[in-house]
TrEMBL record:
Its EC number is 3.6.4.13. SMART domains: DEXDc, DUF4217, HELICc. It comes from Schizosaccharomyces cryophilus (strain OY26 / ATCC MYA-4695 / CBS 11777 / NBRC 106824 / NRRL Y48691). Residues 54-71, 126-144 have a biased composition (Polar residues). This is ATP-dependent RNA helicase. Coiled coil: none annotated. GO terms for molecular function: ATP binding; hydrolase activity; RNA binding; RNA helicase activity. It catalyses: ATP + H2O = ADP + phosphate + H(+).
Length: 731
């Protein structure tokens, strides 16, 4: 899709307040807020004098979750000794008051060797993710049919080929076009995997039927014929761009689309509507607003209402707004005949890549006697009971998971990125929270020299200290991974302007450098980012549907793509859960973390290291260098601590049904701290430094409430254990 399509911001309309929101997927802060609201509602609806242990615990957890991470008292600078070349890394090293625990001892060693034995050795010359031998693409343009074969007007077909380089329909377009062009004008539920071209599947029939209107009707002022609803501004903008690309030809140039997404003055949207619009695209809130308040908006001739990304519309709490929009459209619609080419009634179309219960609920309320349109390739499943049918990923998408002990997470991520950036890849990394995105951005982009400059600046008090973490720069060179690569970050706390710029730069085809986008789930759904080679789920998703949407950013429209998900050893059961809920063809990374670390920390561009100790040394040196940078930079340390506590908080928001897999009590906080390049869990560090036994200050400190990130994490872990015990009637 064209670069301009990536304008955008991720702020959707405000979800309506009184709807039942779904407690899965999306931003962890939203889920946490929602959880609290639900608890508050539940608490107020039960007895006001509920002093049961569960109620008391729940209230305590809520108040603790709001406790801000305290500022750790400044830590004495610790000189870190360089790693010994004689593999002394296997032993813990003591620096002043902290032990630097080795990466490759204990649990991690055990895990490394057990996985190594469990699998055949991978071919040394083989790429880490060999997508060549995957199944045939299931979302690619078909070789057996043409657009003429699905009844598309020849002029529109040549426009697609010449201007958009689209020569044949995909599977879902093959199913949808005949049904929506010449069918009985029934409502339709379009369900197809990510990147399969659902947008064109509903837009092409609409454009073709408008093009065939009688000549007297072919003008922007002849009426509003289609309303398209999408959950976010950037998705609306994407659809708007595709519609404009389609109508940018002699046949359809008169068709005018209009985008109402907020972020722009309502007055200018109104004036565009007043000039005449044939296709109106918008986010639910803004559309409902115009429908209610913009008098010139005439809905009487609307013949199509499309609800795109139905699952996300529901997840974001738009059910009530959509019901309102649909009932307005029903009440104001006339059955005035518009010519042979047009449907004789209003046709509602619902699109979704997943078919979970909320989407089924939306289909029941929005569609009547609907056709169910899905890829003809899924005909083998035709007899499958629709109630138990599972959503699936594109067949050619190579899906892997890797079980990685917490201490090795950071170096393993660095290794995956290093080894794939060499091949000029475009990679997306999904993380659980914005603070973690910020930390990894800093960790990968920082140069040692920068830290030294910061240090000098601090020492010279006359100079103003500059904190590179405070500004909103969202792109830099990934110095610590590959000096030719760029690293970008994207999350909801960045300004809209920064996010827009980030996306358009990340997608720029003018730039041929390898690149990484570190992001939260803000980028998981609907975004059509061109040619992504690899999706890394560094933190597990918050719902199995999110898993599909995240990996769906690669392997689009028949392209190859790979995805890898990192799991902690105690999270392996998540694979069974995924397999139970969705159709996934996921296998374990051969040789586990060893293969990843070996290829990531082999000599750049050369063969993999021959001895295990060689890559272990390099990985250890990489980690220690970052740890030393953090010790030397209070700013960077603050970023790491914040990321650590936000990670733990986000972890606590996994669905209660998944809590036996993502169990807070299984988190080893010290090792998790290591994955944020902290030598100890932050609270422990501050406690060590504040140990002033026998002094008055020490006694005062003892009394003071410990609000350090690790203390909060430990309390949450304790609370989670209590809740777990209550829920499972343990103890
Ligand atoms: N027939 C086709 N041939 C080649 N490319 C196509 C075809 N149809 C669509 N595409 C391209 O495929 C990409 C994905 O299309 P689209 O965004 O509509 O997918 P989607 O099914 O809506 O995915 P998601 O569910 O992730 O939103 C776009 O870049 C689009 O231009």
């Amino acid at each position: 899709m064209a670069e301009e399509s990536l304008l955008l911001n991720f702020v959707a309309d405000e979800p309506s307040s009184s709807v039942n929101r779904v407690n899965s997927g999306g931003r962890w802060k939203d889920r946490m807020k929602e959880k609290k609201n639900q608890k508050r509602k539940a608490a107020s609806s039960t007895s006001a004098k509920d002093h049961s242990p569960a109620a008391t615990n729940s209230r305590k957890v809520q108040s603790r979750e709001n406790v801000p991470a305290s500022n750790e008292s400044k830590r004495r600078k610790t000189a870190a000794s360089p790693v010994s070349k004689q593999h002394s890394v296997a032993k813990p090293v003591k620096h002043d008051n902290t032990f630097v625990s080795s990466l490759f001892t204990g649990d991690s060693k055990e895990h490394l060797s057990s996985t190594t034995n469990a699998h055949d050795t991978e071919d040394e010359n083989q790429s880490m993710f060999d997508t060549q031998n995957q199944d045939a693409p299931s979302n690619a343009p078909l070789s057996t049919t043409t657009f003429a074969g699905v009844q598309l007007d020849s002029q529109l077909a040549s426009h697609l080929e010449e201007k958009m380089n689209i020569t044949a329909p995909t599977n879902i377009q093959n199913s949808c076009l005949p049904a929506l062009l010449n069918g009985e004008d029934k409502d339709a539920f379009i369900e197809a995997e990510t990147g399969s071209g659902k947008t064109l599947a509903y837009l092409l029939p609409i454009i073709q039927r408008l093009v065939r209107l009688p000549p007297t009707k072919r003008s922007r002022t002849s009426g509003l014929f289609a309303v398209i609803v999408a959950p976010t501004r950037e998705l609306c903008q994407q659809i708007y761009n595709v519609a404009n690309n389609l109508t940018n030809n002699r046949l359809a140039h008169w068709i005018v689309s209009c985008n109402v997404i907020g972020g722009e003055k309502k007055k200018s949207e109104k004036s565009r509507i007043r000039k005449g619009v044939n296709i109106l695209i918008g986010t639910p809130g803004r559309l409902a607003d115009h429908i209610e308040n913009t008098e010139v908006l005439d809905l009487s001739q609307v013949r199509w209402v499309v609800l795109d990304e139905g699952d996300r519309l529901m997840d974001m709490g738009f059910e009530e707004t959509i019901t309102k929009i649909l009932s307005y459209l029903d009440s104001q619609n006339s059955l005035y005949p518009l010519g042979d080419s047009m449907p004789s009634r209003k046709v509602n179309v619902l699109c979704s890549a997943t078919i979970k219960d909320t989407v089924k609920r939306l289909s029941q309320s929005a569609l009547k006697d609907a056709m169910y349109l899905r890829s003809s390739s899924s005909s083998a499943d035709e007899n499958e009971d629709q109630k138990i049918r599972k959503s699936s990923a594109p067949a050619q998408l190579l899906q892997r998971y890797c079980v990685i002990p917490p201490k090795l997470r950071l170096v393993s991520l660095a290794a995956v990125l290093r080894s794939n950036l060499i091949n000029n890849q475009k990679i997306i990394v999904f993380l659980s929270c914005a603070d973690s995105v910020n930390f990894h951005f800093e960790a990968f982009r920082r140069k040692k020299a920068e830290i030294e400059v910061e240090q000098e600046e601090r020492e010279d008090e006359s100079k103003k200290t500059t904190s590179s973490t405070g500004n909103e720069e969202a792109v830099d060179t990934a110095y610590r991974l590959n000096e030719k690569a760029k690293v970008y970050r994207l999350h909801g706390s960045l300004s809209q302007q920064t996010r827009t710029k980030t996306l358009s730069q990340f997608c720029s085809e003018k730039d041929s450098s390898p690149r990484i986008l570190l992001c939260t789930d803000v980028a998981s759904r609907g975004l059509d980012l061109p040619n992504i080679d690899l999706v890394v789920q560094y933190d597990a998703p918050f719902s199995t549907d999110d898993y599909l949407h995240r990996i769906g950013r690669t392997a689009r429209a028949g392209h190859n793509g790979a995805a890898i998900m990192f799991l902690l050893p105690k999270e392996v059961e998540y694979i069974d859960l995924l397999r139970a809920n969705i159709k996934v063809n996921i296998t374990e990374q051969p040789n586990g973390p060893s293969s990843i670390l070996n290829s990531g920390f082999s000599v750049r561009g050369g063969p993999p290291a021959k001895s295990e100790l060689e890559w272990q040394d390099r990985a250890t040196e990489w980690q220690l260098e970052l740890e030393r940078m953090i010790l030397d930079s209070p700013e960077l340390k603050e970023v790491a601590k914040k990321a650590f506590s936000s990670y733990v908080r986000a972890y606590a928001t996994h669905l209660s049904s998944e809590r036996s897999i993502f169990n807070m009590r299984d988190l080893h906080l010290g090792h998790i701290a290591k994955s944020f390049a902290l030598r100890e869990a932050p609270g422990k560090m501050s406690n060590n430094n504040n140990k002033q036994k026998g002094t008055v200050a020490g006694a005062r400190l003892k009394k003071k409430k410990d609000n350090s990130p690790a203390a909060i994490a430990a309390k949450m872990q304790q609370k989670a254990m209590e809740h777990y015990s209550i829920e499972h009637n343990i103890g």
